[in-house]
Amino acid sequence: MKISIITVCYNSEKTIERAIKSVIVQGYREVEYIVIDGGSTDNTCDIIQKYENAITYWVSEPDQGIYDAMNKGIAASTGDIIAFLNSDDWYESNTFERVKEYFSESDADMVSGCICCVRNGERSIIHSKEQDNADDYFLDIGFPHPALFVRAKLFKRYGAFDTDYKIAADYDWMLRVCLAGVKVLVVNDCLTFFSYGGVSTLRRYDALKEQYKAALTAIQCHKKEHLRERLREYYERELYFAKRETAYNRAISYQINKIRTLLDVRRVYYIWGVGVRGKQCRDLLVRAKISIAGFIDSYTDLTECDGYRVFRPDSIEPDAIVCVTPKQYENEIRIQLKEMGMAEDNIILFSNLVERIIQLGETDYNEDYSYYCLL
């Protein structure tokens, strides 16, 4: 079974070598590796040339975007199975052999595995999700694209990616084929490592708008008008949160000096909570060049977290500054700190800080309200 792997890239010198190596070290005999570069101006092409003996075909030339480049890769491929490896992602070892077995032992048109997401050195698993009701595809396909392997015949039968979509053409394509009734084998197997920071993750708000457009088009094509209101409610909610996330990320990227004015930069801060929000707070303080004394947590056996000491609440001096991150318990923790003798001004609720940062991002973000025309 011949597997075609397609990588599209542009100015990817920092990550492309890892992606290429992850294909080469598979040791799979029937692999075809295709690299489509968009005319990089850094050292990307030099790195590709370094491994060109292991690359079946590669080209470097201007394109009309990611999906135009992917379509070039599809046109150049000759494999039975096609998959796309982003230039900043990489495969788990022995992935191709496992994929071959999944296809050989089933009549699946697509195999969808899990992806291991890597963000700031931390890993989490996103599982593929089987859909019991075809209507749910309009809201969430549930098949992570970096760990999706498809039979090449699907592109001949249903066409390639629609380049009118700049960010969500993969969603549009999967919606098309899933609604056509192709067979998907969902496996609880981590096949691909995924790096946050690609186009779709950095531009989630814009990606959601395109997904909504694709879903509305599919509603018309498949005469699913009963889903229109459900779709409107779903995307109204998702776009709202994506807008806030965009504003927050924009503020911490471009307005860090204004964020520093929200904090006492001369003091050393403790972070209450070692969970996701605690680490988000840590990242913010590090970016703002605020000194961190450590984490505080009552319910962990950890003595260290990400290189910082973990303290018990009763060991913190009353004149310390504490940023409280557990959203569900922040008021309870605030009361506890005040009972310990801590001044109100020394207690920072992370939720309040995030809201103020979002407001900074919103004032500096030329919002495109065109999605309201769809809603």
What does this molecule look like?
- With 375 residues, the protein is an alpha/beta fold.
- The protein has 2 domains: 3-198, Alpha-Beta Complex (Spore Coat Polysaccharide Biosynthesis Protein SpsA, Chain A), CATH 3.90.550; 257-361, NAD(P)-binding Rossmann-like Domain (Rossmann fold).
- Helices cover 39% and strands 21% of the residues.
- It contains 14 helices and 15 strands.
- It has helices spanning 16-24, 44-50, 66-76, 95-104, 153-158, 169-179, 199-202, 204-221, 228-254, 256-260, 276-287, 330-339, 350-363, 371-374, and strands at residues 3-9, 31-37, 57-60, 81-84, 90-91, 110-119, 122-126, 148-151, 184-195, 268-272, 291-296, 304-305, 308-311, 321-324, 347-349.
- Strands 1, 2, 3, 4, 5, 6, 7, 8 and 9 form a 9-stranded mixed sheet that branches. The chain has a 6-stranded mixed sheet with strand order 12-13-11-10-14-15, with helices on both faces.
- The model is unreliable at 366-375 (pLDDT under 50).
